[in-house]
């Protein structure tokens, strides 16, 4: 007897067979791929703009110190590879509303109502916070590069490998972007019952110390303003997460007390 895999839809009793499920997956992947490909082509065309923006800190160092500082392409195909990397990085970010919606539309029918609420809340807060974090990383990036290259002597040249330099900047932006999203994960852990508001609040000293160390590393010691501009929103986000967790725990405690009272009355 053949066993047919089925998936419940969100409306009524409509169900989706395994074949229809795979067709829908193919459709969602195709739309996402087209969106990324189109934006990648645009990113490749305008790659010079992004390369100029990435090169700006090095150019400033060369002008301010009077020593050589430039991007170095040490392979025949490296310049082209960098443009392709930039194109697809821009595509992933620019097309994110489209491919994230496709992921959401594919998963929604298989989620219960509460899971849908958590997913909507997570996406609605995590995406803007991640982009804000990337923007903050972009703001402090020139200072970090200036600080790191400042350890080289005045007589030394700073001819940086272009691929390594690009990878360094992408990792920096991702690190700061993810750091801005951490409070959302903290709230999510609280909503699913893994982490209590009390535990979050008890760890506020460690959280502030961690944020301070992170921002101190990410910004030059002489640029205190940049450090505070990066640290303050991260600390505020942490305490907002703690407040949301506290409100959730308080509501859950009231609900549990009400259920216990009703059960006691029935007995």
TrEMBL record:
GO terms for biological process: intracellular protein transmembrane transport; protein transport by the Tat complex. Its main location: membrane. InterPro entries: TatC. One of its GO terms (molecular function) is proton motive force dependent protein transmembrane transporter activity. Belongs to the TatC family. The Tat system comprises two distinct complexes: a TatABC complex, containing multiple copies of TatA, TatB and TatC subunits, and a separate TatA complex, containing only TatA subunits. Substrates initially bind to the TatABC complex, which probably triggers association of the separate TatA complex to form the active translocon. This is Sec-independent protein translocase protein TatC.
């Amino acid at each position: 007897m053949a066993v047919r895999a089925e998936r419940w839809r969100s409306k009524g009793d409509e169900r989706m067979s395994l074949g229809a499920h795979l067709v829908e997956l193919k459709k969602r992947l195709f739309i996402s791929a087209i969106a990324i490909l189109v934006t990648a082509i645009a990113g490749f065309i305008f790659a010079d703009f992004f390369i100029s923006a990435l090169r700006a800190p090095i150019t400033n160092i060369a002008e301010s110190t009077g020593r050589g500082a430039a991007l170095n392409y040490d392979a025949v195909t490296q310049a082209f590879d960098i443009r392709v990397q930039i194109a697809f990085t821009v595509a992933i970010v620019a097309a994110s509303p489209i491919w994230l919606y496709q992921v959401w539309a594919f998963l929604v029918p298989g989620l219960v109502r509460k899971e849908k609420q958590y997913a909507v809340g997570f996406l609605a807060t995590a995406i803007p916070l991640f982009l804000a974090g990337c923007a903050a990383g972009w703001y402090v990036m020139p200072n970090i590069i200036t600080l790191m290259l400042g350890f080289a002597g005045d007589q030394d040249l700073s001819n940086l490998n272009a691929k390594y330099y690009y990878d360094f900047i992408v990792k920096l932006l991702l690190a700061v972007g993810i750091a801005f999203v951490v409070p959302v994960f903290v709230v999510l852990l609280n909503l699913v019952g893994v982490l209590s508001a009390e535990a979050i609040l008890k760890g506020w000293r460690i959280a502030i110390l961690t944020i301070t160390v992170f921002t101190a590393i990410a910004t030059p010691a002489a640029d205190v303003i940049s450090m505070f501009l990066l640290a303050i929103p991260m600390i505020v986000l942490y305490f907002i997460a703690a407040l949301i967790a506290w409100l959730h725990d308080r509501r859950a405690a009231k609900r549990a007390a009400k259920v216990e009272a009703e059960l006691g009355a029935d007995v």
